Amino acid sequence: MRMGRRIVAIVVLIALAISLIPLYSHAADFPVTVKDGKGNSITVKQKPQRILSLALQTDEILLNMVSPSRIIGLSIFADDKNNSNVVNLAKNVKGRYSSNDIEKIIAAKPDLVIVPYYIDKAKYDLLKKGLRCPIYVSLNPNSFANIKQEIINLSKLTGEIQKGQALIKYMNDKINAVQKKVKYLRKKKYVLFYTYYFNSTYGKNTTQHEIAKYAGVINIAAVAGLKGWPTITKEQILEWDPDIIVIPSVSYNPKETSQQYVEKFKKDPAFKNLKAVKNNAVIILDDRHIQTVSHYIVEGVYDLAKAAYPYLFK
After folding, report:
1. Backbone angles phi, psi at 233, to 5 degrees
2. 73, 111 Cβ separation under 8 angstroms
3. Are the CB atoms for 206 and 254 separated by under 8 Å?
4. If we measure between CA atoms, which residue out of 257, 267, 37 comes closest to residue 157?
5. What per-residue confidence (pLDDT) applies to 29?
6. Helix, strand or coil for residue 219?
7. Which residues does UniProt assign to the signal peptide (predicted)?
8. Alpha-carbon separation of residue 102 from 43, 113, 116, 124, 221 (angstroms)
9. Cα 236 off chain centre by
10. For residues 87 and 296, is the Cβ–Cβ distance under 8 A?
11. pLDDT digits (tens, 9 = 90+) for 274-307
């Protein structure tokens, strides 16, 4: 009887020891070093508990990866319902900061600060001088590959490897689901992303170009050889005659909503013969998905594919 109890006790102890292995191996992940957007090696010695993010893209990633109790501040854009995918999640974090708030950031005593790749050098230098914690500069998120690498980097810095892998899996699964639907299309549609207030579009080397690729449509500005965010003319739009024209959901003109612009565009005599106008394919897609540079970008792939080929998504 006693021998049986001893065996049971030993088995319980072994099981407990095995269950604790992930905790000890998790602790052993630190210190960790990653390369940031400036090419600097950033080392975090222990699991950060006072994380501060100054960019919406990293707000969105962190809030889906790290407990809000470990985040002391987000960017001022986290609450922007027109652009932020994490408005509700952001309510669990009180602090809001911009890269102008140097003294406020230093006073918050963070143990990890994440700044956008476009941060002003003078402000970055002031933060470096005033803070004793690591400062990670985000990657330039101009591709899906860079977005995924950003998730990997942040998962390592925060000690949330598995959650980072889960976000990448979410991205891959969403893209693969869309790809299966558009894989056998005999003819792909041509799309033009048109930001009317600036008369600009998105060419190669942009995330919008990759959204189009994964959605099974062709970015007509890239076909024309354009790169980045060039301005375009009315004559170019007429020459290209795209099947779909995507208008931003956020209006940059305070006197005109995006929907009002769409109606004005369709009524313009110069555009009356465009395929997109004739087929009622001058559309608005959610900027939170089309403009984001976090894992939520795959929702933009889905939105565009569904708009282009609705019959595939019934």
Report:
1. -105, 165
2. no
3. no
4. 37
5. 83
6. strand
7. 1-27
8. 22, 12, 14, 9, 40
9. 30
10. no
11. 999 999 999 999 999 999 999 999 999 999 999 9
Contact 192, 242 (CB under 8 A): yes
Tokens linked to 120: 């002003």
Is the pLDDT at 236 greater than 80, yes or no?
yes
The answer to whether the peptide bond before residue 68 is cis (omega within 30 degrees of 0) is no
Angle at Cα 21 formed by Cα 17 and Cα 25, nearest 5°? 155
C-alpha R_g of the chain: 24
pLDDT by residue (tens digit) across 164-194? 999 999 999 999 999 999 999 999 999 999 9
Q: How large a percentage of the chain has pLDDT more than 90? A: 89
Could you tell me if residue 51 is left (phi over 0), alpha (psi between -120 and 50 degrees) or otherwise beta?
Answer: beta
Kindly write down the DSSP assignment for every residue of 20-54, as one continuous string.
Answer: HHHHHHHHTT-SEEEE-TTS-EEEE-S--SSEEE-
Q: In this structure, what token pair is assigned to residue 307?
A: 């708009």
pTM (2 d.p.):
0.89
Instruction: Give the whole-angstrom CA distance, residue 77 versus residue 11.
Output: 52
Q: What share of the chain is helix, strand, coil (3-state, %, to 5)?
A: 50, 15, 35
pLDDT in tens, 101-144: 999 999 999 999 999 999 999 999 999 999 999 999 999 999 99
